[in-house]
Design brief:
By secondary structure, the protein is α/β, with parallel strands linked by helices. It has a single domain, classed as LmbE-like (Rossmann fold), CATH 3.40.50.10320. About 40% of the residues lie in helices and about 20% in strands. Helix 1 packs across helix 6. The longest helix has 18 residues. The two termini are about 25 Å apart. Keywords: Zinc.
Length: about 240
């Protein structure tokens, strides 16, 4: 019996939700992809679980870092056409897989009602261990659990419906970034300047990095080669999970 061909992602969706742990996570891994979505008319919302208050490489007082990074993320989002940026306010570096986090992500899913959710992979990538920050993996797993079964099950977290009027919602596909089993690449060559503009908004995180554009370009060129794109192209890669 011949196996069916692998399912491809939807060519276009009306709404997409990106759920990431820290300000700048979406921009390093996915800002080019997001730029292609917004250019095609998709409404994109960012849900950032922490304020990134444990980040930074200078003498900025800790109490100022969270608000600064929120503003940086809003500026980065605007660079790729995203205006709806939400922060859940969890502590940076201390995320755990809890029912509360699942509920809070489920709430945003039911509010936004996206056909597509982008998040980080819950799997550790041993060849790129820096991509597997514990917060990233926790958010990826929490988001997958929120997508299935929580957000689509009217009887999960019943207070979301009873108290907030948020009806169940089924997300069709999830895109996992920084995954060791990526199976889909997005050519971002034509929007790479927008990605760089987004990244450069994160001044507290990248001001110490020499030649950021060269570093990120090399990274994306390697991804493009891995997926057999033509020479000179740049790509971001994801593991696409179909949930229906």
């Amino acid at each position: 019996m011949t196996a069916p061909p692998p399912r491809k992602p939807a060519e276009h969706v009306e709404r997409a939700l990106c759920v990431l742990a820290h300000p700048d996570d979406v921009d390093f891994g996915s800002a080019g992809t997001v730029a292609t979505w917004t250019a095609a008319g998709t409404d994109v919302t960012y849900c950032i679980v922490t304020d990134g208050d444990a980040g930074g490489f200078d003498e900025t007082p800790r109490e100022q870092m969270g608000p600064l990074r929120q503003e940086e993320q809003r500026a980065a989002a605007a660079a790729v056409g995203v205006t709806d940026v939400r922060f859940l306010g969890y502590p940076d570096g201390r995320l755990e897989l809890t029912l509360g986090l699942r509920r809070d992500i489920s709430r945003v899913i039911r509010q936004v009602r996206p056909q597509r959710v982008l998040t980080s992979s819950p799997e550790r990538w041993y060849e790129r261990v820096a991509a597997s920050h514990p917060d990233h993996m926790t958010v990826g797993e929490s988001t997958l659990r929120a997508v299935y079964p929580d957000a689509r099950n009217a009887f999960a977290f019943p207070e979301l419906l009873a108290d907030e009027g948020l009806e169940a919602w089924t997300v069709d596909e999830v895109w996992l970034g920084a995954s060791p089993r990526a199976d889909h690449a997005v050519d971002v060559t034509d929007v790479v300047e927008l990605k760089f503009a987004a990244l450069k908004s994160h001044v507290t995180q990248i001001s110490h990095v020499e030649d950021l554009e060269a570093f990120v370009t090399g990274w994306m060129a390697q991804t493009a080669r891995r997926f057999d794109l033509p020479d000179g192209r740049l790509a971001e890669a994801f593991h696409v999970v179909h949930t229906t």
